[in-house]
């Protein structure tokens, strides 16, 4: 169990990382539209997954209701853009602020009353479901009838964040790059050090003078704001927001599968995990459809999830790093792997 | 970014141009021959929470394709894609189908997935026939490739209430007050809103006493029905899906409430097989208005029989019916276009003027937004554990029975 | 007016007991093994399908079907614990969560393949009958479910209180390490407890089949419902499940009567949040986790 | 003293996640013996008891009970052989009554038939427990809880009782009482493994003793010999 701060990455590792993203960016120019759409969704779920992964992997707080923050972001963008014609950038900022505030309030209330562990997780579900129902009945935000973005026509606009499939591919890829860098930077920063210390032993870090109460609120609020950006982008990509789909349990579950399978709290785990699980889900679905047995995909995907947590308890990325460590310069990435999350 | 994607778009445009050119130069021979083979992509929520209507649509598509091959001689291949009831998958499914070479799309049942799929269709300029999806925005957001067979909720409701008015003004002892029990989901809320407007507009001689909305995930409607009963209404207007439609009738029976009229405008659920399986004799008499097959149509009998022999345990319902019709719309367009090129199919779809094959509807024509202007509803009433068409008069199998037989006397 | 209120009260109480019985299995498993069975809803739906098959195919009464479903799910739960869940007992919550999401998906997918997506109504006369007590009408299916719930809880409480194995279960719930040290057969206890929890879920599912039509994707709804119930009552407590059920049942009934019915679930989630924040262990939750 | 040891621990190595708690430790206990194992906090005493009991799985080494290697046996099988323990921190079932705690202790096959008789015996030994037999174990005082933990172990009719720091958290007078009980059980020909930080008292009642330091056995000998050992006197007795 390492407690010391991660060593600074060597130049090779950073270059390797940039090269990987360059390849992904280049793929954006040559892949067919289907893969573009699929990867766009993969990147968006990766990005949201990273926010979730930070909260648990570095902050030690389990959320099963992240759809709350995703929904807040999505609705901020949708309402400001559709009702008032404002640029989605405003929506993203407002969404971040709202999600951070809601996250902080929720965290403040829970931690003040010593709600922790599985009870905090259950509280996040309750909060997400509560807001889903409230948004369902709220006419101003479209209620159950949802909100729709107008069809995209005309040239890509970075300012209005509207464009074709490739445009969103690059936007979401940029988001993931941002997420990877942010995760790596936080890990390397004093903040990440404090958060992990707090995650591993809250009492001990409090004894060392860490204001854990404040830091726990900070983790939740930070992660919420991050997820809200993802939610705003997701709304733009799918072209509509409905409380059931953007704030439902489905989103909360879908986003956490990738990071867990990929490797929690690591910079690359969420990306690798989502890159594997989401297309797998679609493949299973296509196979189920081919044989005319819908439901087969659920069985297959469910079994894959069980197998993943059974066989690779720390996730795929740490497993890759550990096996590659001895032969390549990936050693710095090794530092990015997750220490066992304590209960 | 532009430099990266530039060449690809050029290549795609070039390729499409080449195909179009080929079609044009080959025209003399092609025109004389049978319509070219066409690939149709069907986007449905075959799994997930909407699997029930989704799979029903898949059956309609498959049967429709078989029928279209025989009727129009179209060599039609259907490729299915599943959205798993998630809106974001609409676009992925559409792009996947386009990638597999589909020339035209049909889908996607729920408005969220439809909008998401339409974006892909729009980008690739592949026409998409929306067999079902009720949100106004499907045709009002400026998509140029959309052709919606299904009417918006407001149209359905107005037509339904017109039928209801015809009924209550023609019977002795008409109901005096009505209570509206409706789902608070997308479909339920938009229907209820339209209901309020249409009720006033048509000046129905029944007083609207109360609206009682309930959550889609309601597990128990006893209080809602008790409230409805206590309002003193003698007509129940409900907007439901099948589970809650069953729950409502069960509660009516348990609470000994016998409305003279039970009517579901835009009534999903009431004409479903599960409704009859669950309620048996108690299902009889419940009325709903819906898009439904025309029992007096030329081919209706054959198609229904074929459906029955293919899928012994299922009914040809509104979902499979609309999906079936959507396939015929596509086939008709392909025949007229004599081309499998998407842009030509799209042009042909714009010029559609089709006498419906299975469904009851006026001539199917699409206006500038892509909305079918001919759509029409039928009124169904349950009789001997099957829904039967009782209105409009021209296609009625029976005359509507009124008032309902009290539940305890059945 | 008074009749309406009386009926709503009766309906709320009966529905509350039904919620209680749906949640019972979840609370038992958490109480002993300290894991939250997120596949609970899928097991309830499993029971619903047993109730459906029994009623629609073989004409077996609901109550017999419930016993059958209970037995079937006991075996399933026992096997699942021994083969799979056992390895995850000491793993972090999020890993357990993924595990149970996986199990839930497998179950729901299997149900979808086996029965299709159509709602499957159980054919039982109970679905339509009530008995009248003065002006109050009591729903027979709910009355039956509530009665069986009461009997089941008494039986379980008796089993845990007075039988040797029940004492083992309580001891293991109380102190797992201590149990190991005095030689309690912990794997057998855990597997049995998981079996009992699954059996409760399945039995409850079959019992409520006259009220709910079976559909594969109801699983999430039932899981959430069970959560709300047990958290309000206190995770791990029997009485808590019942009290939580009653609280939710009555809140929903009167919310539907007094406010908009469509907001009643918002109210129960709101209540849940307040309870979680102010009294995280619920009304009757164990003090120590 | 008979020649055949009852229990032999041979090169036992125990570790948790990289750190080693016991490193190739070998000890043996002879029938009817009172063996003291002493050492400072973190010397590996609790790991020794827990690996004998099967609660902790050793990384390496043998644990022979009457010649049979029981390393890796599950705890319930080991208890069934007649090895009981009075654990550190007592590990009672706090929400269960005193009597239920005792009943559970006596549920092993080896003792179940004589359970009611054994309960009376325990009550005879500790009348305080009889007074509180329907009270929840968690509500007892520290001393009473220790009595209950011992009573629960006795219920299994063990051949070997392992005590893990029985004196911890007890007042000097209660500590003395506790050692009296240990001596009394020893007098009844029960084999006893006593693990203690309280070096002086435990070595003085022990037939033999081992000194553990950082996971190693550093000294062994008769209790009296160890008490007079210079190193022990300096390191543990502050003399």
TrEMBL record, chain A:
One of its GO terms (cellular component) is plasma membrane. Pfam families: BPD_transp_2. The chain crosses the membrane at residues 12-30, 36-58, 65-84, 90-111, 118-138, 167-195, 216-236, 256-278, 299-320. Keywords: Cell membrane, Membrane, Transmembrane, Transmembrane helix. GO terms for molecular function: branched-chain amino acid transmembrane transporter activity. CDD domains: TM_PBP1_LivM_like. InterPro entries: ABC_transp_permease, LivM-like. This is Amino acid/amide ABC transporter membrane protein 2 (HAAT family).
Automatic annotation (TrEMBL), chain B:
It comes from Bradyrhizobium sacchari. Residues 37-384 form the Leucine-binding protein domain. One of its GO terms (biological process) is amino acid transport. InterPro entries: BCAA_transport, Leu-bd, Peripla_BP_I, TAT_signal. Residues 1-32 form the signal peptide. This is Amino acid/amide ABC transporter substrate-binding protein (HAAT family). PANTHER family: ABC TRANSPORTER SUBSTRATE-BINDING PROTEIN, LEUCINE-SPECIFIC-BINDING PROTEIN. It holds the Pfam family Peripla_BP_6.
Automatic annotation (TrEMBL), chain C:
It comes from the Bacteria. The keyword Zinc-finger does not apply. It is found in: Cell membrane. GO terms for molecular function: transmembrane transporter activity. Keywords: Amino-acid transport, Cell membrane, Membrane, Transmembrane, Transmembrane helix, Transport. GO terms for cellular component: plasma membrane. InterPro entries: ABC_transp_permease (IPR001851), BCAA_transport_permease (IPR052157). It holds the Pfam family BPD_transp_2. It is a multi-pass membrane protein. The chain crosses the membrane at residues 12-33, 38-57, 63-85, 97-116, 143-160, 189-212, 224-246, 253-278. One of its GO terms (biological process) is amino acid transport. Belongs to the binding-protein-dependent transport system permease family. LivHM subfamily. This is Amino acid/amide ABC transporter membrane protein 1 (HAAT family). The lineage of its organism: Bacteria, Pseudomonadati, Pseudomonadota, Alphaproteobacteria, Hyphomicrobiales.
Automatic annotation (TrEMBL), chain D:
It comes from the Bacteria. GO terms for molecular function: ATP binding; ATP hydrolysis activity; branched-chain amino acid transmembrane transporter activity. Gene3D superfamilies: P-loop containing nucleotide triphosphate hydrolases. Keywords: Amino-acid transport, ATP-binding, Nucleotide-binding, Transport. Residues 7-239 form the ABC transporter domain. GO terms for biological process: L-amino acid transport. Pfam families: ABC_tran. PANTHER family: HIGH-AFFINITY BRANCHED-CHAIN AMINO ACID TRANSPORT ATP-BINDING PROTEIN LIVF. Belongs to the ABC transporter superfamily. This is Branched-chain amino acid transport system ATP-binding protein. It comes from Bradyrhizobium sacchari.
């Amino acid at each position: 169990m390492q407690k010391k701060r991660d060593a600074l990455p060597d130049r090779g590792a950073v270059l390797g990382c940039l090269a990987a993203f360059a390849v992904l960016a280049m793929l954006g120019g040559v892949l067919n539209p289907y893969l573009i759409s699929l990867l766009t969704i993969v990147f968006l779920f990766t990005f949201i997954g990273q926010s979730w992964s930070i909260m648990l992997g570095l902050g030690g707080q389990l959320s099963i209701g992240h759809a709350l923050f995703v929904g807040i972001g999505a609705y901020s963008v949708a309402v400001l853009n559709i009702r008032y014609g404002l640029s989605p950038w405003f929506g993203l900022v407002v969404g971040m602020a709202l999600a951070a505030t809601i996250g902080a309030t929720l965290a403040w209330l829970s931690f003040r009353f010593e709600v922790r562990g599985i009870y905090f997780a259950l509280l996040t579900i309750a909060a997400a479901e509560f807001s889903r129902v409230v948004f369902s009945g709220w006419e101003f935000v479209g209620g159950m009838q949802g909100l729709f973005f107008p069809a995209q026509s005309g040239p890509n606009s970075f300012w209005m964040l509207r464009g074709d499939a490739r445009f969103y591919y690059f936007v979401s890829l940029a988001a993931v790059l941002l997420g990877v860098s942010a995760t790596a930077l936080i890990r390397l920063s004093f903040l990440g050090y404090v958060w992990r210390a707090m995650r591993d032993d809250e009492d001990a870090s409090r004894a060392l003078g860490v204001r854990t109460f404040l830091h726990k609120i900070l983790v939740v609020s930070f992660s919420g704001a991050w997820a809200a950006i993802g939610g705003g982008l997701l709304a733009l990509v799918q072209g509509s927001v409905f409380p059931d789909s953007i704030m439902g349990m489905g989103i909360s579950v879908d986003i956490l599968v990738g990071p867990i399978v990929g490797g929690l709290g690591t910079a690359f785990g969420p990306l690798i995990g989502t890159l594997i699980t989401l297309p797998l889900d679609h493949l299973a679905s296509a196979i189920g459809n081919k044989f005319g047995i819908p439901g087969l995909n659920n069985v297959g995907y469910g079994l894959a999830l069980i197998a993943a947590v059974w066989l690779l308890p720390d996730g795929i990325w740490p497993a890759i790093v550990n096996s590659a460590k001895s032969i390549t310069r990936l050693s710095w990435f090794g530092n990015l792997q997750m220490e066992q999350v304590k209960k | 970014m532009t430099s990266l994607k530039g060449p690809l778009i050029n290549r795609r445009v070039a390729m499409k141009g080449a195909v179009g050119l080929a079609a044009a130069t080959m025209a003399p021979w092609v025109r004389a021959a049978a319509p070219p083979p066409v690939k149709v992509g069907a986007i449905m929520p075959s799994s997930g929470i909407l699997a029930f209507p989704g799979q029903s649509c898949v059956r309609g598509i498959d049967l429709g394709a078989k029928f279209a091959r025989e009727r129009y001689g179209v060599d039609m291949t259907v490729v299915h894609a599943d959205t798993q009831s998630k809106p974001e998958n609409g676009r992925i499914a559409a792009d996947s189908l386009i990638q597999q070479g589909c020339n035209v799309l049909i889908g996607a049942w729920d408005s969220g997935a439809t909008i998401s799929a339409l974006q892909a269709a729009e980008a690739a300029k592949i026409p998409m026939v929306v067999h079902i999806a009720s949100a106004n925005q499907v045709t009002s957001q400026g998509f140029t490739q959309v052709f919606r067979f299904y009417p918006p909720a407001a149209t359905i409701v107005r037509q339904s209430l017109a039928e209801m008015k015809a009924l209550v003004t023609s019977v002795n002892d008409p109901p005096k007050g009505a209570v509206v029990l409706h789902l608070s989901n997308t479909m339920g809320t938009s229907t209820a809103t339209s209901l309020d407007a249409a009720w006033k507009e048509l000046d129905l001689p029944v007083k609207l006493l109360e609206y009682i909305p309930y959550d889609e995930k309601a597990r128990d409607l006893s209080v809602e029905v008790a409230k409805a009963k206590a309002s003193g209404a003698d007509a129940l207007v409900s907007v439901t899906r099948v589970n809650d439609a069953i729950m409502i009738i069960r509660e009516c029976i348990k609470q000994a409430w016998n409305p003279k009229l039970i009517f579901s405008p835009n009534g999903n659920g009431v004409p479903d097989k599960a409704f009859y399986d669950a309620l048996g004799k108690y299902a009889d008499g419940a009325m709903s208005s819906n898009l439904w097959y025309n029992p007096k149509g030329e081919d209706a009998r054959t198609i229904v029989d074929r459906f029955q022999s293919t899928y012994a345990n299922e009914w040809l319902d509104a979902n499979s019916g609309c999906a079936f019709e959507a396939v015929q719309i596509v086939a008709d367009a392909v025949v007229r276009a004599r081309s499998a090129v998407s842009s030509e199919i799209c042009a042909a779809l714009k010029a559609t003027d089709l006498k419906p094959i299975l469904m009851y509807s006026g001539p199917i024509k699409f206006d500038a937004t892509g909305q079918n202007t001919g759509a029409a509803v039928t009124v169904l009433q349950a009789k001997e554990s099957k829904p039967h068409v009782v209105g409009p008069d021209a296609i009625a199998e029976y005359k509507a029975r009124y008032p309902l037989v009290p539940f305890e006397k059945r | 007016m008074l009749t309406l209120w009386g009926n709503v009260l009766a309906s709320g109480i009966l529905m509350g007991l039904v919620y209680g019985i749906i949640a019972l299995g979840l609370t038992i498993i958490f109480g002993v093994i300290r894991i939250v069975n997120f596949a609970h809803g899928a097991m309830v739906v499993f029971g619903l399908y047993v109730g459906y098959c029994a009623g629609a195919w073989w004409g077996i009464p609901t109550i017999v079907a419930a016993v059958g479903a209970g037995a079937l799910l006991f075996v399933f739960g026992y096997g699942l614990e021994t083969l799979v869940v056992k390895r995850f007992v000491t793993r972090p919550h999020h890993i357990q969560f993924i595990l149970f999401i996986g199990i839930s998906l497998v179950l729901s997918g299997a149900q979808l393949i086996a029965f299709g997506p159509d709602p499957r109504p159980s054919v039982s006369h109970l679905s339509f009958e009530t008995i009248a007590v003065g002006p109050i009408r009591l729903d027979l299916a709910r009355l039956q479910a509530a009665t069986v719930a009461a009997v089941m809880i008494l039986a379980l409480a008796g089993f845990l209180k007075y039988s040797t194995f029940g004492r083992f279960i309580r001891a293991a719930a109380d102190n797992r390490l201590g149990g190991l040290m005095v030689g309690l057969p912990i794997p057998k206890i855990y597997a049995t407890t998981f079996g009992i929890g699954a059996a409760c879920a399945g039995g409850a599912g079959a019992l409520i089949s006259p009220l709910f039509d079976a559909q594969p994707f109801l699983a999430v709804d039932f899981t959430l419902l069970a959560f709300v119930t047990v958290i309000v009552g206190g995770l791990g407590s029997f009485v808590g499940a019942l009290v939580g059920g009653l609280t939710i049942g009555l809140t929903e009934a009167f919310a539907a009567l007094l406010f908009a019915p469509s907001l009643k679930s918002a109210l129960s989630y709101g209540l849940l949040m307040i309870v979680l924040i102010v009294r995280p262990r619920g009304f009757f939750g164990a003090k120590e986790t | 003293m008979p020649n055949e040891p009852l229990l032999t621990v041979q090169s036992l190595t125990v570790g948790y996640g990289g750190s080693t708690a016991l490193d190739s430790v070998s000890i043996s206990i002879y029938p009817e013996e009172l063996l003291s194992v002493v050492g400072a906090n973190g010397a590996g005493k609790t790991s020794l008891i827990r690996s004998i009991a099967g609660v902790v799985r050793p990384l390496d080494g043998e644990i022979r009970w009457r010649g049979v290697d029981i390393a890796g046996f599950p705890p319930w099988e080991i208890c069934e052989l007649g090895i009981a323990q009075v654990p550190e921190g007592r590990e009672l079932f706090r929400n269960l009554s005193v009597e239920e705690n005792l009943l559970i202790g006596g549920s092993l096959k080896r003792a179940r038939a004589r359970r009611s008789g054994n309960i009376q015996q325990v009550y005879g030994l500790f009348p305080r427990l009889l007074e509180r037999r329907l009270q929840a174990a968690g509500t007892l005082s520290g001393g009473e809880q220790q009595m209950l933990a011992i009573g629960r172990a006795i219920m299994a009719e063990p051949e070997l009782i392992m005590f893990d720091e029985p004196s911890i958290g007890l007042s000097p007078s209660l500590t003395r009482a506790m050692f009296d009980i240990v001596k009394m059980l020893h007098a009844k020909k029960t084999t006893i493994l006593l693990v203690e930080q309280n070096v002086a008292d435990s070595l003085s009642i022990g037939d033999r003793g081992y000194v553990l330091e950082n996971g190693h056995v550093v000294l062994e000998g008769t209790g009296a010999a160890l008490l007079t050992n210079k190193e022990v006197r300096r390191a543990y007795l502050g003399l």
